[in-house]
Amino acid sequence: MKNRWIALYVENQVGVLAKVSGLFSGKSYNLQSLTVGTTEDETMSRMTICVTSDDLTFEQIKKQLNRMVEVIKVIDLTNVPLHMKEIMFAKVLRCSMEDKEEVFRIAKVFDVQVADIGKDSVLLECKLTERRINELIALLKSRFKTIEVVRGGAVAVESISTSCR
């Protein structure tokens, strides 16, 4: 069992997301991540999906997706050089002035934006790899009493050079 990545080009219509996610739930496949957005062609959306599965199950998933009328193209990204990022917002709450200074230092090291500052809180906006986001969350949890995290799914695009990953 390992994480597998798929990009789907689908018709940009009401109900397509429900049909695709329904395929996964109907077969008891667990989605790790699902991100959807329109492409340069407004009639088409691109889904980036991560599923944890074995080889046989993953092949079944791809075949079933290919059979769906609304699916235009299925791309297996599992072993393809990619550029992949995930978005996350992290609130550090109940901060002292010293805590805020520490949050600013951490933001600088991780190269993330301070999106908002309150009287006793700081909001960070991140666009990092999954691994770096996990590291940032672990650091914030270890240093501050109260944090709140909102994560989005990963977005991936195939590399245009062969040396990137």
Could you walk me through the main structural features you see in this protein, from its secondary elements to its overall organization?
It is a single chain. The chain has four helices and eight strands. By secondary structure, it is of the alpha+beta class. The protein has two domains: 2-76, Alpha-Beta Plaits (2-Layer Sandwich), CATH 3.30.70; 83-158, 2-Layer Sandwich (Alpha-Beta Plaits), CATH 3.30.70. The strands form two sheets. A four-stranded antiparallel sheet has the order 2-3-1-4, covered by helices on one side. A four-stranded antiparallel sheet has the order 6-7-5-8.
Return the domain count. Answer: 2
Order of strands across the widest beta sheet?
2-3-1-4
Query: Which sheet architecture does the biggest sheet show?
Result: 4 strands, antiparallel
Query: Which spans have pLDDT < 50 for at least 5 consecutive residues?
Result: none
- In CATH, the homologous superfamily of the largest domain goes by the name ACT-like. Chain A, domain 2
CATH architecture identity of the largest domain: 2-Layer Sandwich
- What's the rounded overall pLDDT mean? 92
Radius of gyration: 19 Å
**What is the number of helices?**
4
The strand count comes to: 8
What quaternary form is this?
single chain
Measured by DSSP, the beta-strand proportion falls in 35-45%
Helix content: 25-40%
SSE order in H/E notation? Answer: EHEEHEEHEEHE
What is the top-level CATH class of the largest domain?
Alpha Beta
Going by helix content, strand content and strand pairing, the class is alpha+beta
Principal-axis shape: elongated
Distance between the termini: 21 Å
CATH topology annotation of the largest domain: Alpha-Beta Plaits
